Amino acid sequence: MRCEGTYTPCLLPIEEIIEETRDIKTFRIRRPEDFVYLPGQFAEIFVPGVGEAPFSISSSPTNPTFLEFSIKRIGSVTQALHRLNPGDTIGLRGPYGKGFPLEELLGKNLLFVGGGIGLAPLRSLINYVLSPEHRESFGEVFVLYGARTPGDLVFRWEFPSWEKRKDLTLCLTVDEGDTSWSGRVGLVPNVLQEVFTRSCANWVGIVCGPPIMIKFTIKALREMGFEARRIITTLEMKMKCGLGKCGRCNIGPYYVCQDGPVFSYEMLVTMPEEY
Amino acid sequence: MRLSYEGRLVSYEEFLRWLQASKAFATEIVLSRFNIALPSLPTPKSLLLPQREELYHFLWGKREWKVIPLPPASEKVLLLLAPCEAKAVVHVLDEVFLKNAPPDSSYVVRRENLTLLVVGCTFFEATCFCTRVGGHPLSWEGGNCFALPLPFGVYLEGEGPEGRALEPLEKEELEKLVERLAKEALKPLPEKTPEYLYSAFEREVWEEVAWGCLNCGACTFLCPTCFCFDLALEGKLRGAMVRTWDSCMFPKFTLHASSHNPRANPLQRVRQRVLHKFSYFPLRKGKFGCVGCGRCVLACPVNWDIREAVERVVSCAL
Lengths: 275, 318
Hints:
- The structure holds two protein chains of two kinds.
- Chain A is α/β, with parallel strands linked by helices.
- Chain A has helices at 76-83, 102-105, 119-130, 159-163, 188-195, 211-223, 265-268; strands at 10-19, 24-30, 42-47, 51-56, 66-72, 89-96, 109-115, 141-147, 168-174, 184-185, 203-208, 231-234, 250-251, 254-255, 262-264.
- Chain A has two domains: 10-95, Translation factors (Elongation Factor Tu (Ef-tu), domain 3, Beta Barrel); 102-234, 3-Layer(aba) Sandwich (Rossmann fold), CATH 3.40.50.80.
- Chain A contains seven helices and 15 strands.
- Chain B has a six-stranded mixed sheet. Chain B has a four-stranded antiparallel sheet with strand order 4-3-10-9, with no helix packed on it.
């Protein structure tokens, strides 16, 4: 997307806001025509008078009309975002980073493992894979998604459309159930070993969630026989520029904003544990 | 670029006249190499990446937000600088802000306005270590012209005033100088230094190395290659996105909104500074991110010495 000046955002109105949980909202904005991106990439969102922060894009690039960002209220920019209404203006610059390695995923079965807000970047790829134009290029799709409580599950409004498909298995779990919950209860890495009982040949595991969940899910995948290069995750670091210049999001010699945020586990094990 | 001996000689009067006349195309002549103790004067870094810069304005008016891009404030500058400082511009700043796509739009304008007149060094300061990191006191790589102050005049290569060829005796003097500098030069760091340091990431030696450092960040501000910056908004209903220098020495540099901090302790931050210059940057770009100017050594309030730090860790990894 072109704007005058490397760091200048383009202003756009918020079209729609979806309340996902008590602290997560999905913001829908019209997709600028020249905003060309891949699942897994992120963008900087500017809130006038407050600041700017990077967010992964949770909509699929196969959707030509809008972009979606699912954002948890946690710092000053996200608090300000949560106070906005449809019609209010935000700024956008991007897309940045490298997305999921689509070519390596062609023809593979995809096991998505998400935790909490970590489903946001995965959802972009899931809907990309499920789109009529790409569905045949990929094999089976298995989605395991967990959150702390039933009220913390995001995109619940979209799950019925996934569940009714024959080419996708959706499995939900919560760490702690409540009276409304009749589904599975258990931590994602443990549940994973229970529900995913197939042979891991030709499967790729794609993981995103809180750091501790990523760590234990990768451990579980390794125990289940997934090769290091067949495990993919996407990382978060403090970022400002998004362009590999401001110098803060590096893990060893790699800039998460430029070389990531998507990394294979094979790559991750060569990097210092400083993230 | 190394000395060709094919250059020309001009008198000091002529050279100064040319510098003054150069104002026709350069609005400022800055003597940066004598500017170690006076950070208020411009350095190559502050000319290319000002300590505070407004990138765009925003304002609320007529019931809508506006964003107004700002063209970078920049003047034509003829900059006199030491070989190490020129190397900092060409090897590091250009690499990050020009070659690493997309280029930084304000850096591009400032860089085009900058003419680099490299002034060769005829002696090493106690804090100098350019030769340790692949530099040379008479190199003018990336510069537009080269000047070397000699007892009998100024030796010039590249752009600049006309002059006469060197007399055989003068050439001999110049050769003697080159010879003396070669003798005084330090041994270059081992070629595999970036790999050695990277492999020593987890070593305990970092505790000793990082111990004395106050994490004050003075070194990073004076460093001609330190380029890290912050972007922050100033103002509520009208204001600017401001870029300021930042430092990996500061704990908030990497602090997430969630309060998670991957470099929360001082050891991690010292290691980041040393490894960025001597391991991460070289592994990516094939050249050191340090030019050996010694400013950080000179300016450190507790005499923390990056040369010793690198040596300690490398010797550990060998």
